[in-house]
Write a structure and sequence with these properties.
3 domains; Arc Repressor Mutant, subunit A; 167 residues; two-stranded parallel ribbon; Helicase, Ruva Protein, domain 3
């Protein structure tokens, strides 16, 4: 059996909050693995692994990540660790229409936390919505689906940010 936890089980045993007998049944061999945010060098390799995995599963020919998308992946802190990265790549694969994962295909939280330039959340949201609209030819229904919001909400945001289709 392989088990994973983000808790200090030895400490929990000492404090009496984890059963000692269970700890010794489970603790045959321990591997301490830092969280993904402490292993940023692994992010690109893992992202490409998940890309290949989902390319096969979805029968899509997505070749890689744009430099901006990879930068966002590497900058994100990944509080959900590898599972969160896997889910982000899977979502990007679902919404990607070309052969490259773009920054706008990533979940908003990964793009937002990847912003290290001190911009307001609202600015990041505006850029993200604008990019998704461009990627989808300003098709509001499709863009709303990508953003996981309803069309009315998207129309309100377009009006709020004064977004206009470039001619």
């Amino acid at each position: 059996m392989v088990c994973a936890t983000n808790k200090d089980l030895e400490g929990a045993v000492r404090e009496g909050t984890f059963r000692e007998d269970l700890y010794y049944r489970l603790n045959v061999f321990t591997i301490d693995l830092p969280p993904l945010r402490g292993r940023r060098g692994d992010i690109a390799n893992l992202a490409h692994y998940f890309l290949e995995k989902f390319s096969r599963q979805m029968n899509k020919k997505v070749q890689g990540f744009s430099p901006e998308a990879m930068q966002a992946l590497k900058a994100h802190d990944w509080p959900g660790n590898v599972r969160e990265l896997e889910n982000a790549v899977e979502r990007a694969m679902v919404v990607a229409q070309g052969d490259v994962i773009e920054r706008s295909h990533l979940p908003l939280h990964a793009v937002v936390s990847g912003q290290r330039d001190g911009k307001r959340l609202e600015d990041v949201e505006q850029r993200h919505i604008e990019q998704v609209l461009r990627d989808n030819g300003w098709n509001v229904s499709r863009s709303a689906a990508v953003l996981d919001i309803d069309r009315v909400t998207l129309y309100h945001k377009i009006e709020k940010f004064g977004l206009k289709r470039e001619q």
